[in-house]
Design a protein that fits this description.
heterodimer, A: 364 residues, alpha/beta, 63% helix, B: 273 residues, six-stranded mixed sheet, 23% strand, globular
């Protein structure tokens, strides 16, 4: 191990990146501009009310109510969670409202206080909570009527309770996604193009004319880009905070997850660069890998908006794992245990990408 | 077909190198095949210490492949090459450490300055490079802080010679060092090569230009179809041709068009290419 050689190559790789205007532009300016545009546009104003339903009764009556709610377009329904889970989601701003159908729920409604429908809203989502409350009462009344309950309610049938919660804006969704996207772009594009250029011009061949093992250069390229990637994460988070991002998680964990993501995408980048003979070959492949992920991994909009089948497939994309993990840390203060699934997914991808890169890589 | 002569340069050659400590490069029956193409087909020659040795030949003759096998840049199918006492096949890194290489159309990391690149190359060879002294050798001191991409063609070629000198090599390999240069830049580079030779560097170069070989080389090997078809001093090769009864249709005048060109445009380098 010759540290001096490695260090000299690392410094050279770093300078080469920082002095390359094109690389800087794409890896730093473009994500910032996207953030500015989307931050200003603020797509946060959701038209649907995100309603979590906790069905503790789970009988014919409660199921009829749930299916009625489900067919109401204004509700974006989530079922199957426990009361604690859903209330936590409400506090985190993931739900606008949570409806609990208690075990003693009956149709027609009984007077038993333990059998009453209770809806929880968040003080951070007052407007959504009010709209949700009105809708909920209307739907329940409708269900009661169609169940043949003659005693149509005179007033609201759902008790509403307001809980404290955080208001997550679009910026809170966007920033972690942009961080993930930037890591992917840096890994795939800066390597695929930068390295292929060295290959095409013969600069790489000149390295082979020296007695130094060229893998030192590979190592220096990877580590310099890891460092640059971490710097980008900090810059994007900084700009995000300025835009009102609520960062509740650990920055150290964010950087660690970002580094793991970088390894995955750097391996992909070197796979492309190692395979391609010139930029014309590298460009379409790099785009083929990155473009679908850009739009299907929940960077700009939640994947819940996609058809179910597509959601199940995109669950397994490396950018999905990375964006989800970064988002959980940023928005919910998730720890390692909370994102273990995502970390596992990234590790599997790292191994796959590394093996493919190893197989495709050619120095010339 | 002339037999490759293992002897060093003929005595009385006008520009002799300094030492004659025996061959520093021995190539024996080198062969390389690409698919069905026999690119190099049994090449043997020796280069003496201090000698400037030229390899001539049309495109595709196998010049570059021969050099690259000797330099440890390409595997050798059969035959052997020994450089400065090191067998290339056994220790390619050992050979690379002892030689300087200027590749055809050499390219460097664009974003680094000349000094930064030379210092980086010093690290790659495990030596402390005196960047300014190297740049002075190829007359590029004033470009020390510039990036390679700002250099003219001639300056680039001179820089790649400076990079090849970083490790104070036993032999310097120059692959078509003047291809693509204008007459002024070519003559200037000849001056650089001649000075290096006078200081005792052993140099192996390939070229397409016969006047360049006549100017610089003590001996030349002419290659075609992967074989050496003639090897001797330029004078001896010309004498042999005349001895076979050759005479030019039109006798060369005392000056040619290039002399006219240089006379009219001067020797000054035009770097703003």
């Amino acid at each position: 191990m010759r540290l001096g050689v490695y260090w000299a190559l690392f410094v050279a790789s770093f300078k080469m990146f920082v002095r390359n205007r094109g690389a800087l532009f794409f890896s730093l300016v473009v994500p910032l501009v996207i953030m500015l545009i989307f931050g200003v546009l603020n797509f946060g104003g959701a038209t649907q009310v995100a309603l979590g339903v906790v069905d503790e009764a789970d009988d014919q009556a409660s199921q009829a109510l749930v299916s009625a709610l489900d067919s109401t377009d204004a509700f974006e329904l989530t079922t199957g969670g426990t009361r604690d889970d859903e209330l936590e989601q409400l506090a985190d701003g993931e739900r606008d409202m949570v409806l609990v159908i208690p075990a003693g729920f009956t149709m027609p409604l009984s007077d038993d206080p333990a059998a009453q429908l209770v809806a929880y809203t968040s003080e951070a989502q007052v407007q959504q909570g009010q709209i949700g409350g009105l809708l909920l009462n209307a739907v329940v009344a409708q269900v009661m009527l169609s169940a043949g309950d003659p005693g149509a309610p005179a007033g609201p049938v759902v008790q509403t309770e307001q809980l404290p919660g955080r208001d997550l804006g679009y910026i809170d969704f966007l920033v972690p996604g942009m961080v993930a996207l930037t890591i992917m772009q840096l890994g795939i594009f800066s390597v695929a193009f930068g390295f292929v250029q060295l290959k095409r011009t013969g600069a790489l061949r000149r390295l082979f004319a020296t007695p130094t093992n060229p893998t030192y250069f590979l190592g220096a390229q990877v580590t310099s880009r890891l460092i640059i990637g971490e710097a980008q994460v900090l810059i994007l988070l900084g700009v995000g905070l300025w835009f009102g991002l609520q960062l509740v998680g650990s920055v150290a964990l964010l950087l660690a997850v970002a580094a793991l993501g970088s390894v995955v995408f750097l391996a992909m980048g070197f796979g492309v660069a190692g395979w391609a003979k010139n930029e014309d070959q590298a460009a379409p492949v790099a785009n083929l890998i990155s473009l679908p992920m850009t739009f299907l991994s929940g960077v700009f909009f939640p994947r819940e908006a996609m058809p179910d089948v597509l959601q199940r497939i995109t669950d397994f994309l490396p950018l999905t794992y990375l964006a989800d993990a970064l988002r959980k840390i940023t928005n919910e203060g998730a720890g390692v245990a909370d994102i273990s699934q995502d970390l596992l997914g990234l590790m599997v991808w790292a191994v796959i990408a590394f093996l493919i890169a190893l197989r495709l890589f050619k120095w010339e | 077909m002339a037999q490759p002569s293992p002897s060093p340069a003929a005595p009385g050659s006008p520009r002799r190198g300094t030492a004659e400590d025996g061959p520093v490069l021995i190539a024996r029956d080198l062969r390389k095949k690409y698919g069905t193409l026999q690119a190099v087909d049994g090449v043997s020659f020796e280069v003496a210490s201090g000698e400037v040795f030229g390899i001539l030949g049309p495109n595709g003759a196998g010049k570059t492949t021969t050099l690259e096998m000797i330099e440890g840049m390409r595997t050798i199918d059969s035959g052997s090459a020994t450089v400065a006492g090191v067998d290339v096949a056994k220790d390619p890194r050992g050979v690379k450490a002892r030689i300087g290489i200027q590749l055809q159309a050499s390219s460097f990391f664009d974003e680094l300055s000349l000094v930064e690149l030379l210092e980086l190359f010093g690290h790659l060879y495990g030596v402390k490079a005196d960047a300014m002294a190297l740049l002075a050798e190829v007359q590029l001191t004033e470009k020390a802080k510039s990036q390679v991409r700002t250099l003219s063609g001639g300056q680039k070629q001179r820089f790649s010679i400076a990079a090849a000198l970083v490790n104070d090599p036993t032999i310097l390999f120059l692959d078509e060092p003047t291809t693509g240069l204008d007459p002024q830049a070519r003559r200037h580079l000849w001056g650089v090569v001649r000075e290096l030779a006078e200081r005792g560097h052993t140099i192996v170069l390939t070229t397409h230009y016969m006047e360049e070989a006549e100017e610089l080389c003590h001996r030349v090997a002419i290659m075609d179809g992967g074989k050496i078809i003639a090897l001797d001093t330029p004078d001896a090769l010309v004498d042999a041709l005349l001895g076979r009864g050759f005479h030019k249709e039109r006798v060369e005048r005392l000056a040619n068009l290039e002399d006219v060109f240089i006379d009219l445009t001067g020797h000054d380098l035009r770097e703003a290419e």
